[in-house]
Fold these 3 entries.
Entry 1:
Amino acid sequence: MTTPASPDHAEPWYLLGAGNMGLLAAHYLQRAGFTVIALRRDATPTLERTLILPNGDPVSLQLRCQRAPASETEPLVGAGPIRRLVVACKAPFSAAALSGVPLAADATVLRLQNGLGSLEGLLPEGARMIEVVSASAVKRDGDAHRVVAENDTWMGDRADGGPPAWYGALAGHWPKLHWPDDFRHRQWRKLVGNAVINPLTGLHDVANGHIFQDPALATEAEQLAREADQVLTTLDPTWPGDSLPGVRALAEATAGNTSSMRADMQAGAVTEIDAINGWLLRQAEALEIDLPAHRRIIAAVKARHP
Ligand SMILES: NC(=O)c1ccc[n+]([C@@H]2O[C@H](COP(=O)([O-])OP(=O)(O)OC[C@H]3O[C@@H](n4cnc5c(N)ncnc54)[C@H](OP(=O)(O)O)[C@@H]3O)[C@@H](O)[C@H]2O)c1
């Protein structure tokens, strides 16, 4: 069931990154009555994909497409300045994906990516970037995209000015979508979980649950969590600073899962380590704090997959 169009629905959402998470967001946006246009690197006029919901129901997704510009100098044919954009490509491809996309000076951008800082310097100064932190899991399954878990999703922005007008319509169709007061802490909790679990499982090619069963990996996890807490507490003294139990609980709750970094490393793909551990390291450098465990693990991951 979709929501009938209102004046707020007149503005389409463009989607950069029509993969697992991008398609899930597109599905919720369409259900809420919004038009979604995928920016694709090929010239196909429509994109048809199947999303398999957690209850096994298949949903046929149809998105209008526009060819994304290949470079900054190539214009995007047929689109005026884009006022609403979802960025759901993997973090390292953000600059390439956004290159040449004509964003309006006051565009709203939903950043649906793990890690932090991947869009820094890439958006117009007046743009409103809303960060999306999702605990859902979507995986490629043959030609389809399978929603393995439909969990909480939190949205928030730096200005903390409260949700925009379209949020209410979307929240009615995006299960477990929240606009929490403590968004930044939720985002950081997800970041620390990723910064510990992803590189350790990727480097050692193990499932999430293995980390705390292996004493050597558990010690590394403890160091990574402690260093992350040191930076985050310096940035924000209200940060609780005791991340390890939460990371451990997450690893145990997802014991059999393959982290996205492990999957990327198995596939020989570029990882998101620069947006995850790299973000922590960049903050630490600015604060003149040394993070030896993060430095080592970033180097080790990059030595395998530069
Ligand atoms: N999947 C999950 O369960 C999950 C959960 C939480 C957070 N996340 C985060 O969500 C983000 C997306 O992950 P994902 O799993 O959805 O990745 P994905 O399935 O690989 O999708 C990324 C999409 O981006 C597209 N893309 C890459 N470069 C592009 C460009 N220059 N222009 C246009 N499109 C481009 C890719 O197109 P091609 O297919 O043509 O290469 C692909 O469709 C990541 O930051 C991830 O960490 C994912």
Entry 2:
Amino acid sequence: MAKLLISGSQGMLGQAVTAAAGQTDNQTLALDHGELDITDAAAVTAAIEQFEPDALINCAAWTDVDGAEAAEEAATAVNGGGAANLASACAANAVRLVHVSTDYVFDGTATEPYLESDPVGPKSAYGRSKLAGERAIEAASGDYAIVRSAWLFGAGGSNFVDTILRLAGERDQIEVVTDQVGCPTWTGHLGAALVACAAASEVGVFHAVGGGRCSWFELASETISLAGLGCRVEPTTTESFPRPASRPAFSVLGSERGGDAISLPDWHEGLAGHLAEAGIFNSAASAAQGAK
Ligand SMILES: NC(=O)c1ccc[n+]([C@@H]2O[C@H](COP(=O)([O-])OP(=O)(O)OC[C@H]3O[C@@H](n4cnc5c(N)ncnc54)[C@H](OP(=O)(O)O)[C@@H]3O)[C@@H](O)[C@H]2O)c1
């Protein structure tokens, strides 16, 4: 049995990681923001020295992408400084650090999936703050895995899929962009993969996203269809939806790792899992219906 510490445990991903850890025989200590502020270096060290974990999975982050544009220093204090605190305390205590990062570290102009070693070039304050965290973890030279994911949806947090479900319940028609492509990733799948990664020994950067790729338009259409809602989805462009932070047009992550690559199920499976968990879609009943 290993000892696992989870920071940011009440966030959307943190809840999934905590649930996945509960399915293992690990001894888990899950700390939310109120119990452990990762920007407090002394508190981070104390938590690690008291619990003496074998690994720490960090799900704590500043995740307000648009808000970070006007508050880059505050976002960097969490995503850069907080990650640095975790990295140095983990390295000093021989604790493996599994840290979650993002597709936003890339510039989004590629046409082929981004691999772990591809050059980074964030276009937003949030992306720069997350890259600062990656750099701090690499510099601490401990045992670490930086796991970049993208387009997360899951229970207990605000996410695109749930927003679409809400809007589709309120409106006859919604407009969704077709010109941003990525890999939707269910926290149920990623959470279990992060717990497995905590028990692994490979060091470095990993890409971990749902299999396949699609646009936000396709994800919205599939969500509405699976949920059996009647709302029409009309295509639109990013240009018609100006936002404070720039969004990567192409957020497809691939992996150049061999046997130690993190491979998650296809995003359709993740979407069905999320809707089933929410009681909206029963995949077994639907499969039986399709077979008639
Ligand atoms: N959502 C996505 O699409 C996506 C995509 C790629 C990567 N990621 C990464 O995945 C990770 C988890 O994201 P998420 O979607 O689960 O976000 P989330 O739901 O916003 O969770 C983030 C959690 O971090 C906590 N937190 C914020 N500042 C903290 C601090 N100083 N100390 C301790 N906890 C703090 C928040 O608590 P409060 O709410 O109380 O502040 C919240 O519980 C992040 O690293 C994010 O960058 C997310």
Entry 3:
Amino acid sequence: MLETSQYKKVIILNIKHLKECLSLDQATLKGLWNEEQWSKELLDPGRICLGIFESKKLIALCCSWLVLDELHLTAIAVHPKHRKKGLARLVLSEMLKKGERQGAKQATLEVEQSNLAALALYKKEGFITAGIRKAYYKNGSDAVIQWKKLNQS
Ligand SMILES: CC(C)(COP(=O)(O)OP(=O)(O)OC[C@H]1O[C@@H](n2cnc3c(N)ncnc32)[C@H](O)[C@@H]1OP(=O)(O)O)[C@@H](O)C(=O)NCCC(=O)NCCS
């Protein structure tokens, strides 16, 4: 368990948290992944999923995939009732630290151009836009590709 300065604990999610992940995904990411895909996320040793619980409810999650020295961020979400309290920054910064400890030298992500909240979050965390992928999403909108160099300690 990773202790945080805000008295919230960021924990590593595993297959026991499958139901909670599916439920938060439905509430925040419009069902990004189905049960089989979530199982893979939670079981594959090359993927990292972190979460924050309040009582027994998962209220924030962040997932990534470590490919050689690149940390590919694949999902981040905070329950609507718990937004704007710094939880996304908390879980994202823990993910970047964990990725770094596991050998990542840089982190990358794709975000929908219209997702201003996510873009503002990534800017605060030091991500820089590297390009645009046209009509990347099912709804035809463009994806912004961002990168961040990680400090090697
Ligand atoms: C994007 C999201 C994860 C942010 O979660 P959050 O816990 O509310 O974010 P935080 O409280 O940690 O905010 C960190 C920074 O992000 C930015 N931010 C967050 N919400 C914002 C909003 N609604 N509008 C503008 N900026 C916002 C701000 O810069 C904020 O810093 P500040 O509080 O010092 O101003 C959340 O809105 C969410 O789950 N959205 C739906 C899922 C999603 O779009 N995920 C990203 C794509 S996978």
